[in-house]
Each structure stands twice: as structure tokens, then as C-alpha cells.
Amino acid sequence: MWVMRLITTLLCGMVLGVSPTVLAASSGWQPAKHLQAELVSEYQTVQPGQTLQLALHFIPDEYWHTYWINPGDSGLPTSIAWQLPTGVTAGDIQWPTPQAFSIPPMMNYGFAGPTLLLIDLTVPSSYSATTLDITAKVDWLVCEEICIPAEASLQLSLPVSSSAEPSVYGQSLVSQAKARQPQTLAITGFYDIAGDSFSAAIAGLPDDDFQQFFVSATELVDHAAPQHVLFSEGEWLLRQKLNTYFTHAPTDFSVVLVSANGQSYSVTLQAAAEAAVVSSPDASQQALWLVLLMAAAGGLILNLMPCVFPVLSLKALSIAGNTGQQQQQKRDALWYSLGVVLSFVALASVLLALRAAGTAVGWGFQLQSPILVAALAYLLFALGLSLSGLVQFGLGLMNAGGGLTQQKGAKGAFFTGVLAVIVASPCTAPFMGGALGYAVTQPPFLALLVFVALGLGMALPFLLLAFVPGLAKRLPKPGAWMDTLKQVLAYPLYLSAVWLAWVYGRQTGIDALALLLCGAVALAAACWLWGRWQLRREGKADAVFALLLVALALSVLWMATPKLAENSSSPEVTQTHWQSWSADKHAALLAAGKPVLVNMTADWCITCLVNERVALNTDSSKAALALFDVTYLKGDWTRRDAAITAYLHQYQRDGVPLYVLYWPGQPAEVLPQILTPDTLRQTLERLSKQ
Amino acid sequence: MKKMKLLALAAAALFAGSVAAAPQVGQPAPAFTVKDSTGQVHSLQDFAGKNVVLEWTNHDCPFVVKHYNGNMQQLQKTYTEQDVVWLSVISSKPGSQGHIDQAKSDELTTSRGAAPTAVIFDEDGVMGKAYDARTTPHMYVIDKAGILQYMGGIDSIPSAKVEDIANATPYLANATKAVIAGQTPDPAVTRPYGCSVKY
């Protein structure tokens, strides 16, 4: 057939005395072993400024095929090297939806039968020649069982005029080619790689029954391994075993999804971890200086936090009161900075010591103790009352910490710094998650350095105020306004106390919160009595009674907290079939001889998501957990929680997911990273029989 | 529900499939006991104390032909002279492309001027599948302690054109040099390219 066509073309060419391709939208068929090829233009006459499509047309022999951009386990994709006039450009090959060729144990992706690859060709509007001469040097590999590489030089010479003229043949080929291509969707899916599997989640696909997918990146998935394609909660989830020759994740690539009725769509995939805002897996590789800079910036931001601001207001007042004494200010600022930095270092040292002792704790552990939260709420409330004028000795407080902050000079400045850090701790966890996560995973020296940077950042505004005279001079002169300001500043303190009370309420329950508020009333009464005593300097009874009330306020907490905290955990169980993981809860359950399932997960971990939807949140798994009385604890590593990191290290893991099943009297069993719907039930059945 | 069942089936197959562990660099190389073209039996442990290069081959594969235009023979000579054991492995099943007998093997070695230590006949594909060998050529380097140090392509340009050899990064040569020097190859895993192994 092609021989006939070739002879005809050649004869015509000879008769006309010109190149055989002139005035044709096709290069003519180029014969090769087991395949014939032609290059066809959508237009037989082109105009400057036009973008047209060219089709590379292959007709392989029956049972022979060429390859897709990802050829699979062997083979080579077809490639084209263009020779084009200056200014004319050719785009990438637009591939049809591939077919899978299974040659166990291998898998290839390619095209059998007539195949059309499309290429965009752009002619600049300045193009002035009368013809457009195109040469495509095409390289392909055509295989049945055996493979034959070949190359051909396909030429087209198209006349150029002021009006483009479509070619009937060319247009029909281009429309056929488009019909065989996947529809490219403007949506981005996310993928990640965990253990030995590739997973992807794609939302926003058309309503269809997808059955198969083709990943355009080579050496990513094990092409011959079974594909998992399922729809859950508005997303299509894909999973396949990782390729033996996988080395690194490509930055972005596309996946072609094919539905049961042959519809196909192409979607771009992006690494899920890169899309995660809070935690990047590269955090540990970040340059030290960058981490220190970030820590310092974080420290600076802490000054604006509601839990720090009131303390700073106190300090601002004292600086305003000292205007004119520059030396004094500089000294105070230095002492304050020292207080801040040393407190951070002390906190870090405690954290590191605890870590070294093997106790799994996360940053913010001060706040995990409800009693500490309550005590802080009391402290801020009492500070507020003093600013409001209830306690009459200036800004002084009976509280040791608060009292120290109010002393003039070095000691007062130093302890204001200390107080600022203690009060800041609720804010550091959420805002400094990244840097702190880095710090706790680093050797002690580096971790301390990070905390020093954090402290310096936090102290910076005061250093600036003291050492840049211009700034200090801009502060208003002392006067009656200070009393008003002092009273106004009481309100941020009250709000901070309310916030802490809310945190306490979340940790314990509404009953414990009521007790805390009663304690606060007792504290208010104590402040009032103490203030009265301060004014009159007589009536010891008031002072004694005040101290008793403070003791009462505190003892209320000791009595209420642990019991109520325990009770409050029960409603959680009825709402979901899991509880959030903490080392303490975990240890308590194990000590009580209860079976426990631990699931370490993170929002950015698609593998985790797939596992939960496929295997953990199912009715059968919930039933199995209930049947075997298993407590399901879930740890969220989205923010690189240090306690969870330590837990992961226990199982020689440095990432999620991690599933561990504890059955009383047996060694902990690590479940596979890829869970199936039956994994949990089967494991439980086996463990219960041993 | 039907989908769930399918998934469970697929998952079961996945786990069954992964029982045959894939080769991994840095881990002991898969063991093998195979006959060479002369009928002599070779096992991996016979080569303890020597660095070993494995080359999957099929003399009719165009990608193999590309490298037997001098490159492969040169590599074989260079490294066997440095006491490296070089095994050319043929995993083509009987009747398929590349499957040969002793006479043909000797003839090919002579006519091409090849210099492997031995030509291995793996016609049941056991050794090939143990190494997850997919293409011809497909190259592996095993160190003196029997640890797999390199697996993948012979070089960086996947093509069947001889002229590309000069421009490619010679992955196998670099890896072999590194292993001889007692170092870890970089890269240690690359994309193998070529014809499929005819299992």
C-alpha cells in the first residue's frame, strides 16, 4: 500500500520536476521496518502569525507498538528533533492516552495501531519567506516482542500566504488525534511517597468511574504492580507500589486517568509535602543561619502576642517612668534581654534534659498541665486587678514573680524578662512550631542556639528603645496619663486570663472551669483585702484572710483538676472512635493491660489519609476495635510534634504513617504502612488467639 | 462494596508480590547458582573477595548492539584486568530473541572480541527475576563483601545510537571505579534502558 503511494508521489514529483513534498500537507509515507510514518500539517497553506498543529502519524504492523512519554519497564518514547526556519518554534509532543502492554513480569506503556502524536507549530507574524520548510528527525522504537529502533527525516514544505488554507486530510487527522488524547484538566492533585508506595489524591475530577492510571514520570511506580483506584469523600485516591529503580520524586508531572467507558483525563500532580504550609520535610536541611533568623523573627513576633503584650506594657510603663536616665534604661534593657534569653535557655535545657531522659514531651509541655494553665490565669487576673487599682501599692504585687518584676533596677528588669517568657510559652508552640521542631531534633548545642536566637528576637524592641535615643525620646513624658494607661492596660490582662481559662476549660471540662472561676473570685477578694490592708497598714486579719483565700483558690485547682480531666475524656470516645495520642495516656493504657492501636499521621500525608479511609474509618474496623476493646490513639504530626518524633524514633521511623498495635502480653506489632480493609481485623484476630 | 473487594484483592496481590524482595543497593546482592556457557556452575559466594559486574545481554537487541560496537568490550577488558569478575547473563527463554547455545556463545565472544569472565545461561529467568533485571543491557555492581552497590543503566542517554555513547555519563564505569576504590557509587541507582528481557 505505502509502496504504491510512494511510487505515485515520486512519479508526480519527477513529472513536475520539484521535490515530492511540495504543495502537500503530508510528508508522504516513510517506510521502515514494521512501521510507516508520515508528518501531516493541519493547513496546506499557512499564514504568518499562525499557530497550527502537525500530526506525526505512525502505522505499525499488527502486534507492534511504539512508546509513550513514560515507556514503562523497557522501551523508549518517540522523540523529534526539529529543523525549522528562524523564528518558527515547535512545542512538546502531545500524547494520546496510552495503552498498557503487559509482558510479565514487566509492563510497557505505548500505542498499537494507527498512532497520532500532535505538535504545535508557531509561525511568527514577521515570517516573510514564501515557503515554510519543516524537517522532523523522528526517532522511535517499535517493538513486538523484539524491538527495532529507527529514525526518519520527515519533510514538509508549506506555501506561506496571507490567508491560511486548511487541508482536509490534515484536519481530519488532527481531530482524530485530539479525540484520542486525554482531556487536560486545570486541577492539581497531590502525591506522596511513603515506605514502598506511591499515593495520590485528586479532587475535582468529573463524575466518572475511573479504573486505571498512567503516571508520566519514569521509574516512579512499579508499572506491573496492581493499581488501587478508589473514590472516597470527593477525592480519587490512587496507589501503586514504588519502582525498584525509584531514586527521587519528580517535582511535578501528570497522571492520566482512564474511566470504565474509556474517557481519559490528564491532571498535574504536585508533592503533598511541598504543599504543606506548616512543616516541610526539608526543615532539617535548612541552613542553620536561616533557622536562627527565623527563630529571631519568631521571637520578635511574640511581642505582639496577647499573652506577652500585657507584660511588655508593664515594662513600657517603667521605661516611660525612667525617661531622662539613659544609662539606667540601657542597663535595664540589657538585664531584661538577659532575663528573656536565660529563661528560654532554661526552658530549652529542661526540654533537652527531659528528652535525654527519654521522656517524650513536646514543646508547650508547660501548658499541657492544666494546673499550670490555671495558675497563669490567676497570675494574669491578679496583675490585671492591680492595674485596675484594687491593690494599692503602685504596680507591686504580693506574688513573688510579679513582685520581682516591679523592683527597680537590674533585678526588676531581669524578672520582667523571665515573666515575659513564661507568659509567652502558650504562644510559642503554635507560632514557632517549625523552628522548635528543628531545635528539638538537633544536638543540644544547636537547640540551645535556636532558643537564644528566639530570646534575642523577643528582647529586640527593648534593646532598640534603650539604645536608639531617638526612639526613647519619642516616648511621652510621665504624667497623669500614665495612671489612665495603667488602668486601660488591665483589660488585655483580663482577656489573657479569659483565654487561659478557656484553655483550661478545654483541657478539663465545664465543672473544673467553674471551680477555676470560683478560685478567681476568691483571688479577687484576696486582692481587695490585701489592698485594704496596704492602705491602712493595720488590721492583720485582712492580710491573713487574704492569704487564706489565695490558698483556697489554689487548692481548688489541686482538688478539681485531675478528677475532672479524667471524666472529660469520655464524651470524646462517644463522638469518634479514636482519641488523640499522648505519651501519658498511652502509658496509662498499657499499664492497665488494655490493647491499644496507635496511628501516627499528619494532614499532609496522603498515604495516611488513604489508609484511614480505606482501612481504619470503615465500619468493619470500628466494629473490630469495639469487639476487641481496643483503644485507638491518633497522634497528629502535622506540626512535627517532638513527642511523636521521639515515638517514631522508637520504631526506627523518621516519618508517618506508623501503625502500632499493642496486645497485652505480646511485643508491639508494627502494621504495614499500606493498610488493607482487613489488616486490622485479621491482626487483632491473630493476636487474640496467641 | 464491589470496589472494596477489588481493592482487597489487589492489595493481597500486592503483598504477595512484594514477598520476593526487590534488590536494594547497600544490601546483600540476591544469591544465585547458575551455569555458564561451558556448563560450569557459578554461585555468588564463589566470588567473595572479588568485585562483580553483572551485565544482562541479548546479542540481537539493538541497545546491546549499540554498546557492543566497542564500548562494552572495552569495559569488560578494563575491569577484568583489574580482577573484576564480569558475568554476561542471558535470561532469554528458549525460542526467544537472544537465547543461544554454547557454540553460538563462543562464536559471539570471538567475533565481537568480548571479554567477560563467563557467559551465564539463565534460561528459566530465576537469576534475572531475583535481580529484577528488565532490560538489555541492565548493569549491576556487587562489591567484595557481596553487597549490591550499583544497579541500573550502562549510561545516561537512553537511545539505540552509537554516537550518543560519547556524550553520555558512563554510569557503570563510574560505579565500577568507585567500588574498586572502596567507595559508594553516586548515583547508585539509575534508570535501566533497552529491550525488555525475554523471560
From TrEMBL, chain A:
Keywords recorded for this protein, A-Z: Cytochrome c-type biogenesis, Membrane, Signal, Transmembrane, Transmembrane helix
Cytochrome C biogenesis protein transmembrane domain segment(s): 289-500
Subcellular location: Membrane
Pfam families xref list: DsbD_N, DsbD_TM, Thioredoxin_7
Top-level lineage group: Bacteria
Coiled coil (residue ranges): none
Transmembrane segments: 287-312, 333-357, 369-391, 412-433, 445-468, 488-504, 510-531, 543-561
Membrane topology: Multi-pass membrane protein
InterPro entries: Cyt_c_assmbl_TM_dom, DsbD_gamma, DsbDN, Thioredoxin-like_sf
Keyword DNA repair: no
Main location: membrane
Signal peptide location: 1-24
Gene3D superfamilies named among the record's database cross-references: Glutaredoxin (3.40.30.10)
All residue ranges annotated as the Thiol:disulfide interchange protein DsbD N-terminal domain in the record: 37-156
Protein name: Thio:disulfide interchange protein
Originating species: Alishewanella tabrizica
Automatic annotation (TrEMBL), chain B:
Coiled coil: none
Domain Thioredoxin, chain residue ranges per copy: 23-174
Segment forming the signal sequence: 1-21
Keywords assigned by UniProt, alphabetized: Signal
Annotated InterPro entries: AhpC/TSA, PRX-like1, Thioredoxin-like_sf, Thioredoxin_domain
Protein's name in the database: Thioredoxin family protein
Organism: Alishewanella tabrizica
Lineage: Bacteria, Pseudomonadati, Pseudomonadota, Gammaproteobacteria, Alteromonadales
